[in-house]
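[audit] Reproducing an earlier prediction to check determinism. Same input, same settings, fresh worker. If the tokens differ from the archived copy the diff job will pick it up downstream; this log only records the rerun itself.
[audit] input (220 residues):
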Amino acid sequence: MSGTTPADERPAGAAQHRRDAAGSRERLLKAAGELFAEHGYDRTTARAIGSRAGVDPAMIARYFGGKAQLYIATLRTNDGPDDIVDLLDPDRLATILDRTRRHGPNPVYQVAVRPHEDPAGQQATRAELHRRVVDPLHRRLLAEGTPDPALRAELIAAAFIGVVLARGSGAFTRLPALPDAELRTLLLQMLTPQDPSPDPDPDSAPDPDPNADPDPDSAR
């Protein structure tokens, strides 16, 4: 009679199950990243992801929560410190301009100009855009005492994303060829909040000289 009991087999079986689950998750993540890059979020289906990964598409909900959460997971696969961007930090801005020029704009930027059809995907991508770009700006502007920091952070982010997307659109002549260093300087000049000039106070104008000739032509 064998000395092996079901209790002895349970740990090995559990370990195998964890390895299988981890492998399935990684295959789904890889397949989703490829398909999202090829077809975009809206045109990629859970069935197509499962088919390419060789995994039941129902596992997407089990491992990630849904297609929208899987999309965000693909964006964060290679997440590093440079993905959380303070656009007013010259060094961070230089890094993101270099990466954008070499690899193209981050897919999450697209949500600022072309919303997803799927509300769940839209909400998840919007949250990711704020985490990466808008929130760091908001924190900086709030610490600096800038008026209405939330609005200004959104305006700065929108302007930056517009420039980045336009740079690779083919619609402009000089922008694509502009060196990163020069573009960074111009962007910082454009994006850095400026204190508005106060409106002139009409009561502060100097009193007119009572001895001055009101009609300069009268002396001719």
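[audit] rerun output stored. Observation attached for the diff report: The two ends are 131 Å apart (CA to CA).
[audit] end
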